Amino acid sequence: MPVRRLIATVYLQDPTTHEDLILRPGESPAPAIAALVTNPAAWNVPPQDHAKPGPVAVGEPGTTAGGSEPDSGQGEASGGGTKKSSPRRARTSSA
Question: Contacts for 45-50 with beta carbons within 8 Å, 24 or more apart?
């Protein structure tokens, strides 16, 4: 497994000591601290669980487990895929 190193400066707070931490590019923090860095763009190597996608089940086209076609809910009832915005209310001035 490649070592994950930061490629950007990260500012965070240690949850146990409440101490402000500054992690600099090139550093490889301890796993407990690294787990606090949630932005994947801060790392030079993506986490191992995101690097390889899992297996995908592939069935024959047009078949479903229930034997009938599922109702997608995106037919004529949805208005052709366009969403209307809610009407705005006029603001009243307060005296």
Answer: 45/2, 45/3, 45/4, 45/5, 47/4, 48/1
